[in-house]
Amino acid sequence: MRIDIITVHPELIESPFRHSILKRAIEKGIVDVNLINLRDYAFSKHRNTDDYAYGGGAGMVMMIEPIANCLDDLHAQRKYDEVIYMSPDGTPFSQQIANQLSLSGNLILLCGHYKGVDERVREHFVTREISVGDYVLSGGELAAAVVADAVIRLIPGVLNDETSALSDSFQDGLVAPPVYTRPSEFRGWKVPDVLLSGHEEKIQHWRHERALERTRERRPGLIQE
Question: Does the pLDDT of residue 50 top 80, yes or no?
């Protein structure tokens, strides 16, 4: 998979791809992540990528020309499955969307800034808009890093345990059940006996029941009964 992230501040998201799981995925050649500086596609000597909004109002708007130039250049090199704009009013990001995107070959993540992008970008270039929550960030970089992380870890070969991602929260529509590790007793707090029993069927039943219980308590909207 190749993920191209278009941003005016590439330094904001360099770190997540230089550590841990994402770093190993890149080093293994499983995924190729490219941070593309939008300013490289600006024609003005000051490399401006934003301007005042027509009609007035506070805040600057990202210009269509640098974005179009950048996207044209990328599309001339390869075919992309999606051009995704990170936007507060996009479709709420979910594990199901991450699963879908993990099957892609090439993705573009466009990071907004200021008051957003010229609407013509959204109308003519963007194929999907994604939001990571009902709040506003200073830019789309952190949101793009979240999406990239969630997608990359699902690609076969990224995680050491191939079944690990399948047991993550939300994969089955539920949050994950409680987990424990050694020691089995600490300050009088004990690990549930069933987890020490070695009885796989009983353990799986316990985990499913705890996942249902926790989902009802914390995320009841996920359960349709």
Answer: yes
Cis ω for the linkage preceding 183 (within 30 of 0): yes
Cα of first residue to Cα of last residue in the chain, in angstroms, is: 38
- The SS3 assignment for 36 reads strand
Give the C-alpha separation, 51 to 118, whole Å: 10
CATH class as words, domain 169-222: mainly alpha
Backbone angles phi, psi at 131, to 5 degrees: -115, 140
Strands (E), 57-212: 60-62, 82-92, 106-111, 128-131, 185-186, 189-190
38: helix, strand or coil: helix
Distance (Å, whole) CA 83 – CA 108: 5
Q: Does CATH number 3.40.1280.10 belong to domain 2-152?
A: yes
By three-state DSSP, how is residue 86 classified?
Answer: strand
CB-based contact 154:102 (threshold 8 Å): yes
Per-residue pLDDT of 31-44, as tens digits, reads: 999 999 999 999 88
CB atoms within 10 A of CB 162: 10
pTM: 0.90
| Domain(s) of CATH 1.10.1270.20: residues in the chain | 169-222
